[in-house]
Structure formats: C-alpha cells, structure tokens
Amino acid sequence: MNDAPIGIFDSGVGGLTVARAILDQLPGERLLYIGDTANSPYGPKPLEQVRSMALNVMDELVDSGVKMLVIACNTATAAALDEARERYTKGMGIPVIEVISPAARTAAALTRSGRVGVIATAGTVNSGAYARALQGIPGLNLTQQACPRFVQLAEAGITTGPQVLDVAKEYLEPLQAAAVDTLVLGCTHYPLLAGPISYVMGRNVALVSSSEETAKDVYRELAARDLLHSDTQAVVGSGDDDGAAGTGVAGGVAGSAAFGADGAAQGVAGAAAAGGSGLAGGAGGTNAVKQVSRQGGAQGASSGTATSSAAASGKGASSATPSGEAASGHEFRATGDPVAFQVLAKRFLGPVVGQVRQAHATGGAGVKNLDREIRE
Ligand code: DGL
C-alpha cells in the first residue's frame, strides 16, 4: 500500500483524457497532474527538446513525492520513455507508464483488415514509435497523418462545431482513402475531438484511444508492486464538510463504503453508475460520505446517485486547500498560466479540478541551454 499521489503530465489538457480513465478505474487514488502549457505544443518541436522538457516535468513530479509516473502524452513517450525508465524506474524504483503500447495493443486486437490508421503529432509520426509498436499486426498496412491543428483547437477549448469538422475532413481524407478499419488517436488531445473524428470516419471505423488501456496498466503496475492506495475514502479529502458531494469520486466512495458495510451488490452497482457518470463531479463532501458509509447497500447506491445531481448543479466546484489541492484530493499544476489551465481543465474534467498552482518546471534552464546547443 502506498498513499502517495500518481504523477501524470502532458503538454496541456490532453493528458486529462488519461486522468479521467484513471479516476474511473481507480477512484481511490490521488493524482498530481502537471500541464506543461508554457511549452505547449510538444508536437512540432524536435524530440530532443521535448525530452528535456518532459524530464523537467517528471523531475518536479518525483520531487513532489509521487509513487508512479504516467506519461499521458504520445510525443513525450516517443521522446523520453527510455530515459525516464532509466532515470526513475531503474534509478529510483518509480514505475513509468506510457500511452503508445496500450493504444497499439488495442488496435491490434480490433483490426480485421490490418489497415490501421494513426493520427498523431508530427513528433510522434516522425519518431516511428507507432510503426514499431504495431509491427506485430499480421499483414499490417499503416497510414499515418499528423494533425497539429487538433491540438490547437483542443487547447482553445474548441472541440465541436464547423471549424473542427472542416479541419477533420481535411486531415482524415488520406485515412479514408486508405480504407482503414481502425484509427488510433495517437495524441491524448484527440479523444476530446472524438465526435467530429468519428463522424467523418464513419461508424465502421473503430477509434482507439489509449486512455482506458493505459489506466489498466496503471492498475496492473500498482497492484503488482503493492502500491495501491490504502483507503478509497482518502480521495474525498479533508476540507469541505459542507460542500456538495461530487459525482464520480464521491459516488465511487459511497459505493465502496456501502459494500464494506453490507456487501450489497446494489451498492456497488450504484457506485459504478454514479462513478461512471462521473468525473464532472468530484469536490466531495465528507458528510455525504460518512452518512452513506453508515447506511449500506441500496441506500448507499441511491445516495451515490443523488450526489450526481448535486455535482451536476456545479456546487462544490471551487473548494480547494490553500496549497492548490482540490477537496477531491487531486492536485493540478501548470507551467504556463494556471488560471487559463484551470478554466480548460474544469471544462474537460469537471469540478474535480480545484485551484491550479504554478508548476516550478518551466522547462526554462534546460530548454534554453538546449536551444543554445542546437544553434551553436
Ligand atoms: N497530447 C500530446 C500527445 O499525446 C501532445 C500534443 C502537443 O503538445 O503537441 O502527443
């Protein structure tokens, strides 16, 4: 057992799609998320530079005491995975989870024709990381396409509407021409645009997002190393007894408590339903949880569901400790403007995001030195 947070990062909001899946599958864990927005986008930059920036962010996460690192970014995975495993896993015993092999695994399982498409950043496409990861698919016919404007759109909070559709039609044309039956969203920003992407590709093309499989890897690794959190209720945090209970997190906790009390299957089902609908919730009220934990099965489940509507009304969204840790127990930081990141993160992950703090890892020194080295 280990109650330290899981460290997770991306160039910006894309990694929240992975964070969401981790919170769905592991509602008892705490996250420490860094959006490296000062250095976003990673995609068009040389891999050397991305490696330096990613390692700076991971150093900050490790210095903050995380028990695991999740590289919730394909470009950073392509650029820095080997060095990260060397530095943190071999050197310090901290496991590093990435997003490329989970997506490749899923694509291999889904494709019927072997015609697989990958859309990703230019950095990821040019790294050849997906070509290597997908090698095992029999008769593989791989079509790759860089889609840099998808990242810009997601970082601007624009994920639906005519502009996205126009860009999607342009980018996806070569994938349609190649008749792929499976399309890997090889950038963690892209699941935020899954609606328009699927609309353009059509129902018969399976979209693969690495989030769910990556979250399973997180569970697998935590369980194998005995690093799972000891208490699901810890995620509710200390602060806000009067706050409205959050959907996902509080719902999940409610169900666990109900299960603990009575072992009632209904309680667990209720928790799953509330938790599943859930990451838009999150700022948990401990009153609600304590109350539910005294109740048990069926009542626990209905209380879990009731918290959904409380969270859906947006109450309890802003509670956070002075350190920036939300009442949900999760912490979010950005290397760029924390307020701008908070607005977007709340849009994509919901009120589980509390106050956002300034990250120390601006990529500054390391990246400037690297720039100088490249020029010289
Ligand atoms: N979300 C990132 C990825 O998965 C990077 C996007 C970017 O910064 O260009 O590759």
UniProtKB/TrEMBL annotation:
Keyword presence, Mitochondrion? no
Q: What is its EC number?
A: 5.1.1.3
Q: Binding positions for substrate?
A: 10-11, 42-43, 74-75, 188-189
Q: Which GO terms describe its biological process?
A: cell wall organization; peptidoglycan biosynthetic process; regulation of cell shape
Query: Its annotated pathway?
Result: Cell wall biogenesis; peptidoglycan biosynthesis
Identify a single GO molecular function assigned to this protein: glutamate racemase activity
Under PROSITE patterns, the record lists:
ASP_GLU_RACEMASE_1 (PS00923), ASP_GLU_RACEMASE_2 (PS00924)
Q: Where is the active site?
A: 73 (proton donor/acceptor), 187 (proton donor/acceptor)
Looking at its record, which EC class is this enzyme?
Answer: isomerase
**Location of region: Disordered:** 293-331
Query: Where do Low complexity bias regions lie?
Result: 300-324
Q: Which InterPro entries match?
A: Asp/Glu/hydantoin_racemase, Asp/Glu_race, Asp/Glu_racemase_AS_1, Asp/Glu_racemase_AS_2, Glu_race
Keywords, sorted A to Z:
Cell shape, Cell wall biogenesis/degradation, Isomerase, Peptidoglycan synthesis
**Reaction(s) catalyzed by this protein?**
L-glutamate = D-glutamate
Give the domain of life: Bacteria
Any single Pfam family the record assigns to this protein: Asp_Glu_race
User: Its biological function?
Assistant: Provides the (R)-glutamate required for cell wall biosynthesis.
Assigned protein family? Belongs to the aspartate/glutamate racemases family.
* Name by which UniProt lists this protein: Glutamate racemase
Q: Which organism is it from?
A: Actinomyces graevenitzii C83
Q: What is the lineage of its organism?
A: Bacteria, Bacillati, Actinomycetota, Actinomycetes, Actinomycetales
